[in-house]
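Example (one chain per record):
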Amino acid sequence: METQLAEIGGRLASGQPDALEDCYRTLGPLVVSYLGRYVPQSDIDDVVQRVFYEVWRVHDRFDPNRSLRGWVLGIAKKRAIDHLRKRRDSVVPLDAVREITGDDGREFAERMVWADEVRTALAQLPDVQRQVIQMAYYEGYTQSEISTALDTPIGTVKTRTARGLQRLAGLLEKDGS
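Predicted structure:
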């Protein structure tokens, strides 16, 4: 088998089109088996196709003195990782979406409206109050960190936060929220 793979590898490296077919016939079952450990069964054929497309696309990079099996399996590993990354990014469990939006999406819509009302009210605060509230509630700073960042006494930060929150509550009540 190694002699046969070496011969196929030499022909592949020199660009002989029939070498790809022989490579697929010889190593295809191994690639399918290898991918079966990582890729869902329903996706294996697509990934195998990408693997052998890549084998042909970069055939000129293959060193005939090295293992054809190792080179092809290296490409298979990379295509499997690419496939899993794409799949991971595009698949969101239905339960996760339901948690975010609620059963019918109304909770999510209400939260979006509420967030918009808070942003509008926040924009009406004096700059010094808005700044400390944004740093504390949107950026996650502690009052001590805000004090240091703004070079302002911590008592002043606490006062601005308290007054800003009172004013914000008043603005939101006035809007009927």
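Caption: Residues 8 and 115 are 63 Å apart (CA to CA).
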